[in-house]
Design goal:
By secondary structure, the protein is an all-alpha fold. It is built from 14 helices and no strands.
Length: about 270
């Protein structure tokens, strides 16, 4: 998932095969990782209805098993999905449930098994959710907690994700373009070094926005276009609306009003 991208057809094929094997063996709890992996495949491709069904199944299995790790993973998945669906109050509940369950000492190898340090995502998306609900001070506090946790864990993929989501918080708040550029550049460096193609694209998208906000408008637009191409090549689509809005903002600032309106229309 980190090296091919979560939306890679190979990810779907492998998790679907694993799910079939679990169903044949009638292993209900063992089915969870396969459902969780397929959830992320469909979520990143912006198949939100399918992802919601898979996430609901994950949560049901976790609740029946009363397994803290599975509950953590299920709440994280549902929280992130609901945030992207605009259901911020429900998203907050799931993300706070996940944060409460996360213990880095208890789950030291979670990144190896699930591709990410889940507690970092609960905090980072929790920050974005708090901003959307009108709690800016709490949002920035949660954002810095996520960055600190990711650095302490030294798990590269989660460190990049925390930097990208911190940059995204800068974008949605329309503030801190200098910090956003630094975070995006660090994310780009790490994602390139460790070979995370999807995250390389996201880093370039967000770095382009930050450059545009700092006055480097044409460079910012070019960088955003390059990032968009890189992300699209992995099959990821869940952040596309965010990119189009950011790109249109920079196009408008440079006087490309018609281009910006076409961008918002998805053309």
């Amino acid at each position: 998932m980190p090296t091919k991208g979560y939306a890679s057809p190979e990810v779907e094929r492998l998790y679907a095969q694993a799910m079939t094997l679990c169903q044949q063996a009638e292993k209900t709890v063992e089915l969870f990782p396969s459902l969780w992996g397929l959830f992320y495949f469909h979520f990143v491709r912006a198949h939100f209805h399918t992802a919601r069904d898979l996430g609901t199944q994950c949560l049901a299995i976790a609740q029946r098993a009363q397994d803290p790790l599975l509950l953590l993973l299920a709440h994280e998945a549902m929280g992130i999905l609901l945030f992207h669906c605009g259901e911020f109050a429900a998203a907050r509940e799931h993300l706070e449930e996940g944060s409460a369950l996360y213990n880095p000492q208890q789950y030291p190898a979670i990144g190896l098994h699930y591709g990410q340090a889940v507690g970092v995502l609960c905090l980072s998306y929790g920050a974005l959710t708090l901003w959307a609900l009108g709690y800016p001070e709490q949002a920035w506090k949660r954002c810095h907690e996520a960055l600190a946790l990711a650095r302490a864990l030294c798990y590269p993929y989660s460190q990049v994700m925390s930097l990208l989501l911190a940059t995204w918080l800068c974008q949605v708040s329309g503030d801190r373009a200098g910090e956003a550029c630094e975070w995006a550049e660090e994310a780009l460096r790490l994602a390139t070094e460790y070979g995370f193609p999807e995250l390389v694209g996201h880093a370039r998208e967000l770095r382009g926005w930050a450059l545009g906000r700092q006055g480097a408008l044409r460079q910012g637009i070019e960088e955003m276009h390059c990032g968009f191409v890189a992300v699209e090549a992995t099959g990821a689509a869940f952040t596309k609306p965010n990119l189009l809005v950011a790109l249109a903002e920079v196009q408008g600032a440079i006087g490309q009003v018609a281009e910006g309106l076409n961008t918002l229309a998805g053309r």
